[in-house]
Design goal:
- One of its GO terms (biological process) is iron-sulfur cluster assembly.
- Belongs to the iron-sulfur cluster assembly SufBD family.
- InterPro entries: Fe-S_cluster_assembly_SufBD (IPR055346), SUF_FeS_clus_asmbl_SufBD_core (IPR000825), SUF_FeS_clus_asmbl_SufBD_sf (IPR037284), SUF_FeS_clus_asmbl_SufD (IPR011542).
- The chain has 2 domains: 334 residues, no CATH class; 69 residues, no CATH class.
- Helix content is 21%, strand content 42%.
- It is built from 7 helices and 17 strands.
- The chain is globular and about 65 Å long.
- The protein starts with a helix and ends with a helix.
Length: 408
């Protein structure tokens, strides 16, 4: 399958029409022209939490090089993964209806010639996930990349993006989910300590289709991930899950936008984060826009943060923008707190040592998100990563060490 010029024009026209109707103050009007997006100063509402100096110019005009981020992929039979350039790459840009709303995204499209495309045919049901491995080989040079994922009608597929190593990466990732398709996307930001990652994920969910988007951030000096969803017809369902663990000095920022632009659509946003170490900073901004046409929709967004040590900061801002009163339900919640004293007391009263009790509380905090991912390898990797964070950074024992201590 190829993207025709007619499709391209229709996608762009639809996106422009959509952006003209957006009433959200958190999402500026889109434009393909870089010059239409001024360099942020940090005073803008959508940039006020981000330490711009640590972005190393990715938000402005840092020159994009090549070769510092290596991409490898594995895909099951019937799924195409390939790099395209020039006019063919241009055909894939905007397949989600996305029109850049910031300077970095506009530059990705304007200043890079290649795209990595994943094409899943209609009614395909591969038993193995599509895995894209992006490995940074040096944070001295900025690089830009575009990934486009198109899933045909009534297909079922899982796509995993793994980010590791040292890099400065500006990135746009698009998902076009066909009618009746079921798609799971897992993006893991497990960068080295010096990495900077500025990313936009954009998805358009077809009629009666479902998308589960899971964002996991552990590594990196600064990670800012914008994830946005819109609908191509009624009956679409979007579940956006997130898990992050910030250490001393790290800035991890996740911004969510669900655009209910079709009736009888559903969205659920659920992010959880933990922080430890002086200067650890997390930001979660959730925004749901319910348009006048979006009658009968249902939505809920939630963010919970667990502070493990002193010197951390968690900013959480949920937003609902409602333009119609004819909805099935809408709500939001955000909390930040320390260990639950009642949980710790309950565990310790049953003979469990304090360190082990704290480890169990943290695991219980993340368990609900991890078990909903639905990708066994990823779930196991995340459990191991949580153990590592606890053992290395605040001295809590791993499961094996704790067990050995109890037996002794």
């Amino acid at each position: 399958m190829t993207v025709t010029e007619t499709d391209r024009v229709a996608n762009v026209a639809n996106a422009v029409e959509t952006s003209d109707r957006v009433a959200s103050h958190l999402h500026p009007e889109g434009s393909w022209r870089v010059e239409d997006h001024p360099v942020p100063t940090g005073l803008e509402e959508i940039w006020r939490f981000t330490p711009l100096k640590r972005l190393r110019g990715l938000h402005a005009d840092a020159p994009f090089g090549t070769g510092s981020v290596r991409t490898e992929s594995s895909a099951p039979d019937g799924v195409s993964v390939r790099a395209v350039e020039g006019a063919e790459a241009a055909d894939w840009r905007g397949i989600s209806g996305f029109v850049p709303t910031d300077r970095a995204s506009a530059r990705v499209f304007a200043e890079t010639a290649a795209s990595l495309v994943v094409d899943v045919p209609a009614e395909a049901e591969p038993t193995e996930p599509v895995v894209l491995r992006l490995s940074g080989e040096g944070a001295q040079t900025a690089e830009a990349g575009h990934v486009a994922v198109r899933v045909g009608a009534h297909a079922r597929v899982t796509v995993v993006l793994n980010h590791t190593g040292s890099a400065q990466l500006a990135q746009v990732v698009e998902f076009a989910v066909g009618d009746g398709a079921q798609v799971t996307v897992v993006t893991v930001q497990d960068w080295a300590d010096d990495a900077v990652h500025l990313a936009q994920h954009q998805a358009r969910v077809g009629r009666d289709a479902s998308l589960k988007h899971v964002a996991v951030s552990f590594g990196g000096d600064l990670v800012r991930l914008n994830s946005a969803v819109s609908y191509a017809g009624p009956g679409g369902n979007a579940e956006l899950l997130g898990l992050y663990f910030a250490d001393a000095g790290q800035h991890l920022e996740h911004r969510l936008f669900v655009d209910h632009n079709a009736p009888h659509t559903i969205s659920n946003v659920d992010y959880k984060g933990a922080l430890q170490g002086r200067g650890a900073h997390t930001v979660w901004i959730g925004d749901v826009l319910i348009r006048k046409v979006a009658e009968g929709i249902e939505t809920y967004e939630s963010n919970r943060n667990l502070v493990l040590t002193d010197g951390c900061r968690a900013d959480a801002v949920p937003n609902l923008e409602i333009e119609t009163g004819d909805i099935a339900g809408a709500g939001h919640a955000a909390t930040t707190g320390r260990f639950d004293d009642e949980q710790l007391f309950y565990l310790r009263s049953r003979g469990i040592a304090e360190d082990e009790a704290r480890r169990l509380v943290v695991h219980g905090f993340f368990a609900d998100i991890i078990r909903r991912i639905g990708v066994a390898d990823v779930e196991e990797r995340l459990l191991t990563a949580v153990e590592h964070e606890l053992a290395v950074n605040i001295g809590l024992p791993t499961a094996s060490a704790a067990g050995a201590g109890a037996d002794a």
